[in-house]
Amino acid sequence: xxxxxxxxxFLNYRLTVTVIIGTIMVTITSKGGNTMTTxxxxxxxxxxxxxxxxxxxxxxxxxxxxNVFVDKASGKDTNRPQYQELRSTIQSGDLIYMxxxxxxxxxxxxxxxxxxxxxxxxxxDIVITSNAELFDSRRFKSMGDIxxxxxxxxxxxxxxxxxxxxxxxxxxxxxxxxIAKAKGKFKGRKTKLVEGGEEEVxxxxxxxxxxxxxxxxxxxKTYKVGTGTIYRLLEREGIKR
Length: 241
Fold this sequence. Notes:
It is a single chain. Helices cover 46% and strands 18% of the residues. By secondary structure, it is an alpha/beta fold. The protein has three domains: 1-35; 38-162, Rossmann fold; 197-236. It has a four-stranded parallel β-sheet, sandwiched between helices. The protein has a three-stranded antiparallel β-sheet with strand order 1-2-3, with no helix packed on it. Strand 1 and strand 2 form a beta hairpin. Helix 3 packs antiparallel against helix 5 (145-182). It is elongated and about 65 Å long.
């Protein structure tokens, strides 16, 4: 028969050592009894951005690749497929790593609401790897009511800063576009497929395929062009979607 010894309880976790014929197995469980699972959440804002750095961080932390959820989407709202799947997967006692607070979102309300949902309603924990000394929900929980108060204050401050930074960047972008328009230099995003040579042949083939009922997804694969390029081409040609 195995010998099971509860060695210690640290924060919300119980460290259990099981000895079976000289072999020691260590299991970390939540106080409620569920086996703890460690997850990673990675987000980049666009398809073109590379998530490799964040994935490398998760690997260094020992997070299994199957437990890393990756979104390539803006943080302007929380309706992101992988993030929503993560939310529906986590249980009490689980741990989530992410490299920055704005991976949760860039809206002040979204960051606050989702942090509290995960750490208080579900009972899981979050560690922000870029500032783990400050943003490790396990530390706040171990401090009781005063920890909850401090957590709320720090979260509110940093979520506010993140939202203001996003607004400032968008304002600068708009101002830059207005200045460029005033100087006659802003022409918007150009469609890559132009008249002349092979490009014109490809452009006409794309238009014909679309009019023949070929899906946007299949056109993308066949001609190696982005969805935005296809839509701008159709719009330029006056073809209704």
